[in-house]
Q: What sequence folds into this?
């Protein structure tokens, strides 16, 4: 119970409770308002820096907006400049592309022409290669045939004789040698050169020690090499001895003979690695020759034959020279006679010319006479005859 102003109020009274609650609420609201005002004052003080910062932020935002506008303008300008640059670049690229295209067309045309020319030349070369291949195949067949020929001693001997015959035929006159000539001892030389005395006829015999030479070339070890060398020495010595005994005859042939080797390789092998065989041939008066050296030797013999024939024909030459001198003397006499005839004829022509000139002068004087001017009673003029030759 509460007593106010002489009145007493009970707390159980609902109205009193409502009034009390309302008063408490009002008091509470008032207190809250006071606190809010106090806090608002404090907040206003606290918000002044915030407001300042907000103002600064607004200014910065404005500056950012202005910068953005400027940036937008700059970007627009840059975009326009870039567009113009791209346009110019495209035009330049189109021009250069057109120039490059034209140059490429020219180059392609030139390349096409050069390629066509190269293809033509390549085709010609291929044809040449085909012909060469055919020749090589033919040559291979010939080589195989040559190997077949050289594998047999008889055919190999015939090969050497044919080669010797060809060389002698090219180097010497036909009447200066005899192929397969038979000597007084019954032996037959492959070729006999009819040289004058001295030295006299000289025999040439063809030999071809192929088997020992091939064995020497194909040797795989020292034993095979020594055996092949021994076989080659034996073969060459046998040939030298046979030629010396068969084709060197006193009073019939020259004091020496030639052994013809139809292979330059065998000849080079003998002179390079078997000089004792060459010296043995010299000692036996048998000179070993190859196709090349045989041609040189035969050319020397040709000069000897020519000199001998000149000496043989010296008498005939002197006789012909005497006849030639007589003919020249007779020709000189006849030229002198002809010169005298020409001189006499020239003199006669000169005298005829003088007579013709005199006759012309007389005719001219007669033509100049004027017979009408002569008086009829005057005596006729006496004609004086001028002395001269008719």
A:
């Amino acid at each position: 119970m509460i007593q106010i102003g002489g009145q007493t109020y009970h707390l159980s009274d609902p109205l009193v409770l409502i009034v009390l609650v309302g008063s408490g609420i009002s008091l509470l609201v008032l207190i809250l308002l006071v606190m809010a005002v106090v806090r608002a004052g404090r907040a206003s003080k606290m918000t002044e820096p915030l407001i300042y910062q907000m103002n600064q932020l607004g200014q910065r935002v404005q500056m950012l907006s202005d910068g953005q506008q400027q940036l937008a303008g700059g970007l627009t300008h840059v975009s326009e400049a870039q567009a113009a640059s791209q346009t110019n670049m495209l035009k330049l690229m189109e021009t250069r592309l057109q120039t490059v295209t034209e140059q490429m067309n020219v180059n392609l045309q030139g390349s096409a022409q050069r390629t066509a020319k190269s293809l033509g030349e390549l085709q010609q070369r291929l044809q040449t290669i085909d012909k060469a291949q055919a020749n090589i195949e033919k040559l291979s067949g010939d080589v195989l045939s040559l190997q077949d020929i050289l594998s047999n001693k008889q055919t190999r001997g015939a090969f050497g004789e044919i080669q010797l015959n060809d060389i002698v035929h090219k180097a010497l006159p036909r009447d200066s040698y005899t192929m397969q000539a038979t000597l007084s001892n019954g032996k037959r030389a492959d070729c006999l050169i009819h040289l004058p005395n001295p030295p006299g006829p000289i025999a040439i015999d063809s030999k071809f020690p192929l088997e020992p030479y091939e064995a020497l070339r194909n040797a795989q070890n020292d034993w095979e090499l020594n055996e092949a060398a021994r076989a080659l020495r034996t073969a060459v010595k046998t040939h030298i001895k046979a030629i010396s005994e068969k084709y060197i005859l006193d009073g019939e042939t020259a004091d020496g003979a030639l052994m013809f080797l139809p292979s330059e390789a065998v000849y080079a092998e003998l002179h390079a690695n078997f000089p004792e065989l060459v010296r043995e041939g010299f000692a036996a008066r048998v000179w070993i020759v190859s196709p090349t050296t045989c041609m040189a030797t035969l050319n020397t013999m040709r000069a000897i034959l020519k000199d001998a024939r000149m000496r043989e024909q010296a008498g005939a030459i002197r006789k012909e020279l005497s006849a030639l001198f007589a003919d020249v003397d007779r020709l000189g006499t006849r030229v002198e006679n002809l010169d005298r005839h020409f001189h006499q004829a020239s003199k006669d022509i000169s005298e005829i010319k003088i007579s013709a000139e005199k006759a012309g002068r007389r005719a001219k004087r007669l033509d100049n006479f004027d017979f009408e001017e002569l008086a009829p009673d005057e005596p006729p003029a006496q004609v004086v005859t001028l002395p001269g030759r008719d």
